[in-house]
Specification:
- The complex is a heterodimer.
- Chain A contains 3 helices and 9 strands; from the N terminus they run βαββββββββαα.
- Chain A has one domain: Umud Fragment, subunit A (Ribbon), CATH 2.10.109.
- In chain A, β5 and β6 form a beta hairpin.
- Helices cover about 25% and strands about 35% of the residues of chain A.
- By secondary structure, chain B is an alpha+beta fold.
- Chain B has one domain.
- Helices cover about 45% and strands about 20% of the residues of chain B.
- Chain B has 3 helices and 4 strands, in the order ββββααα.
- A 3-stranded antiparallel sheet of chain B has the order 1-2-4.
- Classes of the chains: A alpha+beta, B alpha+beta.
- Chains A and B meet through β1, α1 and β2 of A and β3, β4 and α3 of B.
- β2 of chain A pairs parallel with β3 of chain B.
Chain lengths: ~160, ~90
Amino acid sequence: MQQAQENIVELPNEVLLKGITDLLEEGHTATLRVRGNSMRPFLEDRRDSIVLAHVTHINIGDAVLAEIAPGKYVFHRIIAIDGENVTLMGDGNIRGTESCTKADVKANALAVIRKGKEYSTEGKHWKRYSKLWMRLTPVRRWLLAIHRRLPLNWR
Amino acid sequence: MKIKEGFELREMCGENIIVAKGVQNIDFNKIISLNETAAYLWKSIVGKEFTPESMAELLRMEYEVNEATALADTQELAKAWQDAGLCE
């Protein structure tokens, strides 16, 4: 009758994330598991989680949840802000970027949970990693290729 | 028993989920969701004293189910809620 905690319910992103952005607007924060590998090397598909909050202001380098097209959400990093226009790129992506407006940025990450350990996005680990990884963008292709070949528990 | 205060049943994307009021973070990795029948029972008994027997009666008012099955189901449900810390 009841779905116990060990049951995993997967909801389509467009449904779940719309519901979540409503909760965030009410002042809640939400922890949810990531899907996909576009935020590698830090976040691994279906293993790691993020803690989202309603966004108040954004900066370059922030990892945010954005609705890049109606019903299509990504959790990527802001790489440029130009007036109202925002450009995003996943840490695990080599070239592809997304564009949206500031209003489309629905949430930012308060923390990321990697291998069960929580890192505040205001903390030095995440900040250091973010700075370094953004600087390494030109050589990302090779670093990610190596990362992909590592056993899961090393990633 | 009784549902503890501070829990709220809300519908999100077609799922009935239990949200603790006042708890800021909602962890979607361990959320409690109720199916339609459980949600009906929740709404009927929230804020009131209930027993598996009284829930079974409510169940039989709404669904075609025999007494024994209804009671077995509501006993299981009450236990699950208790284990999850939702009622006292």
